[in-house]
Amino acid sequence: MYALPRPVSHSTSPLQKRRGRRPVSLRRKLAKHTPVIEVSARLAINGLLSVAALAALSQLVPYSRTQAQRLAQVNEAIETAEASNTKLKSEFGRYFDPAQTSRLMQEYSGYTSPQERQVVWTDPTRP
Question: Has residue 38 been placed in a domain?
């Protein structure tokens, strides 16, 4: 009748057996994966920026080539205009130089002054 009391074990109590494991909070789950999420986000953003930079470069290269061609054409036109300009300046100075008026009259009309004599060069080897 009289039963002996059960020995009490200190390692497990009836309350602990009922509780089981504590549920892991969402913060702790995310805390484990946070570095992976950050690294993958950085890689994705850097990849997008790289693609955008390459797209911009692919558009700038042909543009710079056309600009270089246009610059070469403009430089060529400038050289032609400068040559024409120097020619016109020299002609302008020639036409309005008082010392050369008699020479210009002779060129355009064939007029020669009476004091001037015509010199004809001959080949001395011919008899």
Answer: yes
